[in-house]
Amino acid sequence: MSSWKEIVERELGVKVPDQYAAFLDKYGIYYGPGIEVYGMSDSLTGYDGSPCVIGATQIRRREHGLPHRFLVLGYGGFEDEHICLDTEDEKVYSISRWYGDRKIADSFDEWFQRDVIEYLEWYENHRKEFGDEPFEVIDLDWMRKLRHGL
Asked: Residue 92 gets which letter from DSSP?
């Protein structure tokens, strides 16, 4: 059976960076309060659209001319902003037709630590203010280790 990394590489014709491959192997896809990171999962019924990294990337390529080297990691929160991983330089970018493109992290791990893990830690400390239940969907200790390599 092929790994998620191999499936993404085959379907999209890119080399998946090791840091994102580690995320795919451990989590596949991440859904959390206010955050979603696209990937691959056995629960997907197909590759069409998000949260599947293949479908989201194919749509962005077809409809918006996303350069071939990028993987769509998620929605950025603005009208047409997407968070994308450059498979060549391994940096993370915010890409938007309306707001322009900008580098937001030097690696998947840096982006994930700053924009996902730190937010989730803040959220866990403040969730009672929102009346939310604790969440058990991510191993924060394992994700912190990504910063230092596996």
From this structure: E
Mean pLDDT of the chain: 83
pLDDT for the residue numbered 148:
47
- CA-based end-to-end distance of the chain: 23
Tens digit of each residue's pLDDT (9 = 90 or more) over 26-63: 889 887 767 789 999 887 767 777 789 999 999 999 99
In this structure, are residues 86 and 104 in contact, taking their beta carbons and an 8 Å threshold?
no
Residue 142: strand, helix, or coil? helix
Domain of residue 8, CATH code: 3.40.1580.10
In 3D space, the residue among 130, 124, 150 whose CA is nearest the CA of residue 24 turns out to be 150
Helix (H) or strand (E) holding 60: helix 53-64
Residue 50 belongs to what domain range? 4-146
Sign of CA dihedral 142, 148, 149, 150: negative
Q: Assess contact for 16 and 8: CB atoms under 8 A.
A: yes
Say if residues 108 and 95 touch (Cβ distance below 8 Å). no
Average the pLDDT over 58-76 and give the result. 92
Count of the separate structural domains present in the chain: 1
